[in-house]
Amino acid sequence: MKYAISLAALAIVCVFLIGEAAIPGAVSTRLEKAIVANVDEAGSVRVYVRTFPALAVALGRIDFLRVDARDISVDGLRVQRLFLDARHADVDMRAVLRGGKLEVRHIAKGDVTVILAEDALNDYFHSRDGVLRLLTVKLRPGVATVSGSANLLGVKVDVALDGRFVVQGDTRLAYVVDRFRVGSTVVPEVIKDGLLKSVDLSVDVSRLPLPLVLRDVSVQDGVIYIFGGTPPVK
What is the per-residue pLDDT across 134-146, written as a single tens digit (0 to 9) for each? Predict the structure, then answer.
């Protein structure tokens, strides 16, 4: 009898240990597929999950969640890297398992980094209608220069905007123009605002497959780093 009880206890322990080892990897794979299904294109997506006990994942409880997605595209915006480090996440596992959809109900604490390359930013603007197709963005530390050419009274002239990207709302970057040049002439402020009123150089990241709230942005040589967190629990 004691032998049978010991054997059963050993079997339970073995099943528990196997589950602890296997479940996080299986869930990570499911989450990776769900992220890929929620974007237009994806280069690589890696998800790391840690929860104890591992069976708690069935309820959507994840103690530690790390997502590293590279070369993903959503609505014409190609992201070089999307990185999430989160603790105490609540994920709708039913949506993941049945529909392949990633639905994060909330994250207690998370840090998000989005990296946009200069060429991807230009592709994003060129995919829009209007004057943005004719403009090119050049990124250098602290400054984003937008340049192109315009036809004024039959004469082709070079135009350039020197400005910066700033956080606007939870999921949007706005472009603030500090200086507007036509040829070598700096356009006065009062005229600049009227001429650029219809030019929208904002970047919308609301369709990215992870919940995020933008906090800060840093422009460096050829790249934009966007820093944020996760939405507060409602």
Answer: 789 999 999 999 8
Pairwise CA distance, residues 205 & 121, whole Å: 12
Residues 124 and 191 in one domain: yes
- Tell me: do 198 and 139 sit in the same domain: yes
As a whole number of angstroms, the distance between CA 81 and CA 93 comes to: 25
- Same domain? For 182 and 88 the reply is no
How many Cα neighbours within 13 Å face the side chain of 146? 25
Q: Which amino acid is at 215?
A: R
Residue range of the domain that includes 68: 2-117
Determine the Cα–Cα distance for residues 234 and 215; give it in Å rounded to an integer: 19
Cis omega (within 30 of 0) for bond into 211 = no
Pairing mode of beta strands 104-117, 223-229: antiparallel
What are the pLDDT digits (tens) for 191-230? 777 667 777 889 999 999 888 899 999 999 999 999 999 8
Residue 109 tokens read as 């604490």
What gap in Å lies between CA 38 and CA 60, rounded to an integer? 19
* Number of domain units in the chain: 2
